[in-house]
Amino acid sequence: MSRSAANGLRELLGSELKVVAAPMAGGPTTPALVLAAVEAGSTGFLAGGYLTAEALAEQLALVRSGTESFGVNLFASTPVPVDQAAYAAYRTALLPLAEQYGVELPAAPVEDDDHWCDKVDVLIEAAPPWVSFTFGLPDDAAAAALRRAGCTLVQTVTSAAEARAASDAGMDALVVQSAEAGGHWGTFTPERPPARLSLGDLVGAVRATTPGVPMLAAGGTGTRNDVRAALAAGADAVAVGTALLLTPEAGTNQAHRAGLMSDRGAPVTTHAFSGRPAGGLPNAFLAEYDGRAPLGYPALHHLTGPIRRAAAAQANPEHVNLWAGTGYRHATARPAAELLRELAGESRVGIGRHR
User: Fold this and answer.
1) DSSP state string for 273-290
2) In the β-sheet with 152-157, what is the strand arrangement from edge to edge?
3) How confident is the model over 211-270, as pLDDT tens digits?
4) Dist CA 46 CA 60 (whole Å)
5) Beta bridge mates, 174
6) Under a CB-based contact definition with an 8 Å cutoff, are residues 259 and 286 in contact?
7) CA 50 to mean position of chain CA atoms
8) Residues 6 or more apart from 337 whose CB is under 8 A from it?
């Protein structure tokens, strides 16, 4: 699909605003958050990452009971193999912390595909308007089946080269994500991360490479000025995530909320929690383990998971992944719809598109 720049992506998404709610896996994105975005006159993406197919279907049903205007994000099945010896050494280093929380760590690497096939089947059946992918391109069979179901396909990219690959694969639109974003950096090549360009520079490079493809910009957009700058650089719309983490509709756990409400300095890019590069705030876990972790996804995600879940249950921000982008200081506990309208430069209310 080729559209001229000006309003292409907003027309594609059916959004009245230039700002949409990004998917945040692991709990923060909820059906309530997606519906709040719709109420604002925008749209939102459910986060399919880490969910079972059954849980994804339940969330889809909840959102669809209120709107037909939404998307779903999946983690593409692109594992990063872990070195067995490095995994064993990292597990040994984590054992004192596991003992502190009274949890068991997997002795051998857990390598799975995040229920990829089952979740693709759910989306083929449900046919949400938009399906986006992170970590890599979907396989040809899945992409073709989703297109036949009527889904518009959106690809997360972190470089001009990835944008070209996505365009060549027939993706309908792009999410251009800079390293300023919180959570996982969606690079196709975590072992060879792309250059760390500012969001504006990255948007400009991608626009020059794929001039006719609708584009969402993502990364570090915590203020109206940030949104304005991304649009001026060539984006059609902006996806915000970190700014919504403290909203009442978000499912952000209490440990994560506590971390966001303290000034911990600039976010860092780490693979110590999951084995893939991700942006988060410094804490005691990273101070101890950031330089000791190998690459390896999803093996490290499953290895550190018991510790992170136990720390979250105790509302302890020191041993959970405090995913956050560079604009985290602008996150507030205001209603999501209000925040999205403000970021988009709008003050209207009651313009949502609930059924």
Assistant:
1) TTSS-EEE---HHHHHHG
2) 19-21, 237-240, 215-218, 173-177, 152-157, 130-134, 71-75, 45-47
3) 999 999 999 999 999 999 999 999 999 999 999 999 999 999 999 999 999 989 999 999
4) 8
5) 155, 215
6) no
7) 12
8) 36, 37, 39, 40, 349, 352
Helical (H) or strand (E) element with 301: helix 299-313
DSSP H helical ranges for 4-135:
8-13, 31-39, 53-64, 84-101, 116-126
Beta bridge partners, 294, equal none
* CA dist., res. 25 & res. 46, Å (int): 8
Q: Would you state the structure tokens that stand for residue 280, as one six-digit string?
A: 């988060």
Q: Token pair of 272, please?
A: 């110590």
> Position of tokens 């050494």?
89
Beta bridge partners of 269: 279
The per-residue pLDDT for range 29-48, each reduced to its tens digit, is 999 999 999 999 999 999 99
Question: How far is residue 291 from each of residues 116, 187, 287, measured CA to CA in Å?
Answer: 31, 20, 8
Q: Distance of alpha carbon 155 from its chain centroid, rounded?
A: 12
- The residue type of 276 is R
Question: Taking the model in full, what pTM does it have?
Answer: 0.94
